[in-house]
Design a protein that fits this description.
single chain; 260 residues; alpha+beta; Formiminotransferase-cyclodeaminase, Chain B, domain 1; Alpha-Beta Plaits; 6-stranded mixed β-sheet; 26% strand
Amino acid sequence: MLECVINISEGRSHAIIDSLAQSCAGDLLDIHSDPDHNRSVFTLVGVDAARSLARAAVSAISLSDHSGVHPRIGVVDVVPFVPLVDSTMNDARIARDEFAAWAAVELNVPSFLYGHERTLPDIRKNAWTSLMPNVGSHSPHPTAGAMCVGVREPLVAYNLWLENVDLATTRRIASVVRSAHIRTLGLQVGAFTQVSVNLIQPMIAGPNDVYKAVSQHAKVHRAELVGLLPASVLATIPRARWEDLDLSVEQTIEWRVTNR
């Protein structure tokens, strides 16, 4: 089984988000939408749903009138394939390459590939300058831009909201806590600032670890899990911490797969 966690550049229009959800309903595990990021994270299982969602998103959304605090290069911005039960990284890599080839032909949207070749931050930094798409046109689609299509192990996406902390300080905190296992951005989100986090090796550095690290520099107003997390990661965290960290059994990948 493969998981696909597609980041779509739309987090404000309930009508569009509901329509996109219908396009992949049978294989949809979770949606997390954020109007300030103007971004929705769709957690799916399998490969067919990823194509259905991508086709619907390219049809419904245009980057020309998009605004939001989260960086993006496309309507279907990030498409990572993740091996779950009985799947391997090679299975995920095949799914990635086939998806990128399909998107170029069927949607006319080019793809930057990440995984063993490069990281997602590498693409964010170098796309359209020193780095051109691996698959499809070397020009962005006029309304859909391009896609970052990758392969990775399960990660945890996580937000820590700070109150009465200015953006410059939040960015400094994000830089201080950043490591090989913790990727961070400092963002302005409405009246709050936010340390937006990807925990790329959550068994080594998980939600509790990054919460403690940020708390050394500022008071955390609240924590927010984006999408789902592996049950193995939740099991490493004392149950008494779950509520403060915005975690529960029902937010694990395994629980959603079993109960979908």
